[in-house]
Design a protein that fits this description.
Elements (H helix, E strand, L loop, with lengths): L2 H11 L1 H24 L5 H23 L6 H29 L6 H26 L9
Helix pairs in contact: 2-3, 2-5, 3-4, 4-5
C-alpha cells in the first residue's frame, strides 16, 4: 500500500475525529479572542467562561450536524453535560495556571500557557465522553 493510499484510508477511518479537530481549532480561535478581549473588563476566570460559552454554542451547531449527525434533545443533553465537565476542567486549569503557577501574572505568556492547557486537555476529555455517550440510532449499532 502506497503512502497516498495509506493517508486516504487513515483520513477516511478517522474522518469524524479530524472534522471534530478542525471545528475545535476554529472554535478555539473564537474562544481565545473573546477571552482575551474579555480580560480587559472582567476577571480571568469569568473571561474564560465567556470564551468557552461562545465556543460551546458554535461547536454544538457545527459538530451536531457535521460530526455526530445528531440534532435531538438527547444529543443536546449529552453535549451540554460534557460541555459542563469540560468548562469546569478548563476553569480549574486556568485558575491553577494564572493564580497559582503564574501568581496572577497578566502577561501574554501566562495567558497563552494557561489557555493552551485549558483547551487541549478538555478537548480530549470531551471528545471521548461525547463519543461514548452520544445516542446511537439503531441503524448505526450494526
Amino acid at each position: 500500500m502506497g503512502i497516498i493510499q495509506f493517508c486516504k484510508t487513515w483520513i477516511q477511518q478517522h474522518k469524524a475525529f479530524i472534522l471534530y479537530g478542525l471545528i475545535s481549532v476554529f472554535v478555539t480561535l473564537v474562544d481565545i479572542a473573546v477571552c482575551r478581549v474579555g480580560e480587559m473588563w472582567f476577571s480571568t476566570v469569568f473571561s474564560n467562561t465567556l470564551g468557552v460559552l461562545t465556543g460551546f454554542t458554535i461547536q454544538y451547531f457545527l459538530t451536531a450536524r457535521h460530526v455526530y449527525n445528531k440534532n435531538n434533545f438527547k444529543s443536546f443533553i449529552v453535549f451540554l453535560w460534557t460541555f459542563l465537565v469540560g468548562l469546569l476542567f478548563a476553569n480549574v486549569i486556568v485558575f491553577v495556571f494564572r493564580d497559582v503557577i503564574f501568581h496572577q501574572d497578566d502577561s501574554t505568556l501566562a495567558f497563552l500557557v494557561s489557555k493552551g492547557f485549558s483547551i487541549v486537555l478538555p478537548f480530549f476529555v470531551m471528545y471521548f465522553l461525547r463519543k461514548k455517550f452520544m445516542p446511537v440510532n439503531k441503524d448505526e449499532e450494526n
